[in-house]
Amino acid sequence: MAEEGGTGQEAEGAVRGVPGTRGEGFTAPGEEVAEAWAELVATARRTVADGLVVGTSGNVSVRVGDTVLVTPSGVPYDRLTPADVMGVDLEGRQVLGTLVPTSELPLHLAVYRTTDARAVVHTHAVHATAVSTLVDELPAIHYMTAALGGPVRVAAYATYGTPELAGNTLRALDGRTGCLMRNHGTLTHGAGLDQAYDRTAQLEWMCRVWLTASSVPGLAPALLSREQLAEAGERLRGYGQRG
Known about the structure:
Residues 38-211 form the Class II aldolase/adducin N-terminal domain. InterPro entries: Aldolase_class_II_sugar_metab (IPR050197), Aldolase_II/adducin_N (IPR001303), Aldolase_II/adducin_N_sf (IPR036409). Residues 1-27 are annotated as: Disordered. The protein has helices spanning 30-49, 105-114, 126-132, 163-173, 193-214, 226-236; strands at residues 59-64, 67-70, 87-89, 94-96, 119-123, 154-155, 178-181, 185-190. It is α+β, with helices and mostly antiparallel strands. Strands 4-3-2-1-5-8-7-6 form an 8-stranded mixed sheet, with helices on both faces. Helix 4 links the parallel strand 6 and strand 7 (178-181). The model is unreliable at 1-29 (pLDDT under 50).
């Protein structure tokens, strides 16, 4: 979520608020931050294009060293520029930029402090949010459940932007890389923005599949057993190209 973006000129080799060398409270080179910010903005725009959020709902972050770059509060993603980069340290102190960070900053920081996440994506995806109002755990409708670490839990409801919501979400994430948030949306994390985003998209898709199958009168969808999920998880570990 965000606020009006600036239009300042970039200095060569740096962006506004990002020094080209290391400074107090900032441990990443300016070029690395600039590249990560560009990827973050692209990911945030993708959540809108793919229908996972409306307007500036939801938020995205990525960790670069001990700095967390995060979408600002209330600024439409298509108005963010390289000069609008903003970041905080792991305690939430702003070390880059002047825009106000997302109201869900406590949630993002809690994930970084307690997991090995390098990127976090939070959305208000329609089907996932609908499922979060119906069950305490997404039924194992598809083997991609294993890609998130097992059955996807629903975090108990709490007001957005609060430490209580962060705590509830961490409990739902225990041993998982994604969860639903009651009457709210989704949260996934990964080793990078591409992986975190892919997990978000997969979670929304599984929620849509379960809702569709569950809507057929007189029938109930077949679900996978824990043994079947475990076998799928083993196979998924070797999926894709080596290296």
